[in-house]
Amino acid sequence: MSCLASCCVASTCGLCTSVASGISKRSARLAYCGLFGLSLIVSWILREVAAPLLEKIPWINSSGTHTKEWFQIQAVLRVSMGNFLFFAIFALIMIGIKDQNDRRDSWHHGGWIAKMVIWLLLVVLMFFIPNVVISIYGKISKFGAGLFLLVQVIILLDCTHSWNDAWVEKDEQKWYIALLAVSVGCYIAAFAFSGILFIWFNPSGNDCGLNVFFIVMTMILAFVFAVIALHPAVNGSLLPASVISLYCAYVCYTGLASEPRDYACNGLNNKSKAVTTSTLILGMLTTVLSVLYSAVRAGSSTTFLSPPSSPKSAEKKPLLKAEEMEEGKEKSKETEARPVSYSYTFFHVIFALASMYSAMLLSGWTNSSESSDLIDVGWTSVWVRICTEWVTAVLYIWSLVAPMLCPDREFF
């Protein structure tokens, strides 16, 4: 057994070394996404298999009265805390980087073997931390996960506005037709999905006023988005409104699907495992895509990801005067300080918050009262999702009316 373990460790180290050596400066952002994805896989695996092992560790199982669900939550939180500390430390180290001549720029893009070792050590060390520290981290993670959901909303708004602007700039009839087709399609999908939610979460013979309120509010918001976006005084478009409407319908579904399985108005309570699996997969996919988009978008964003020193967030100005360009061009190339294209600190903060969110998703927001087979179930999850939907609506409406209220500022 020990020989097999040694072989596995050796092959894993060899794989990590080859992968680390193949990471270039351009692919560093994707490498961070890969490392984050690895943390999700480790958390998921340990959640399923680590409970019997944690029961044998005296400083974790100090009272001897904990349930299986509690040990599963402990495994998820400890991996999450190690991952959070890794990205939080890098976020602190990268504060104040303005140009690529800064030595810390190479720390951000290189040294991947050392980074993998540090990440692994942090994760392992978390299993030696007292339970009280993990409990405090679990409470803080609820707020961090909420912040990440807010970042998700901002990223979605940025994406939809960029998508709309890219097609409008083409100024061709076929792209306008495509905009209209996608917008109508998203609206049809949003309202049809909302109708299905009435069937699933408002079963006959039960007083489900709360569920009806959530679904009706979602449909009203979709209608309000279209009215405001198409108002002559607002420089809006139907595409972002339709995409946000569809997203709100999805968030409403995830919230209602998170209702306790013994709740009479949860019409899917007889399909607990199927709903749980789909919710987990969609939640994880949304998390990974959000982090991946923020990583890729960081290099070209002109909004919240680019620092003031970035050439993409500032006005286009010549870096050198004409006289300086004539004298010693080769020397200027060596000494010129090229500004970074995005904020490294904010980049790592995204991953740190995503670590907290993934922990909440896998641990059901640290609610161990439900069955261990259920993921992200409970009234805490319901209200977090619904509040996320409403915050999304407020932010989108603000993005439409803000240019009128603050004409001197640029939004998206």
Descriptive report:
This protein has 412 residues and is mainly α. The protein is built from 15 helices and no strands. It folds into 2 domains: 26-58 and 66-162 and 341-363, no CATH class; 172-275 and 369-406. Helix 4 crosses helix 7. The chain starts with a helix and ends in a 7-residue tail after the last helix. The chain crosses the membrane at residues 75-97, 117-137, 144-163, 175-201, 208-231, 277-296, 342-362, 382-405. Belongs to the TDE1 family. Keywords: Membrane, Transmembrane, Transmembrane helix. Residues 313-334 have a biased composition (Basic and acidic residues).
Helical fraction equals 55-70%
C-alpha Rg (nearest Å): 24 Å
The overall average pLDDT, rounded, is 77
Structural class: mainly alpha
Q: Report the portion of residues in β strands.
A: under 5%
Number of beta-strand segments: 0
Low-pLDDT regions: 1-22, 298-334
Distance between the termini: 57 Å
How many helical elements? 15
Major sheet details: none
What is the 3D shape?
flat
Number of domains: 2
- N-to-C SSE series? HHHHHHHHHHHHHHH
Assembly category: single chain
Organism: Juglans regia (English walnut)
GO cellular component, one term: membrane
Keywords: Membrane, Transmembrane, Transmembrane helix
Biased composition (Basic and acidic residues): 313-334
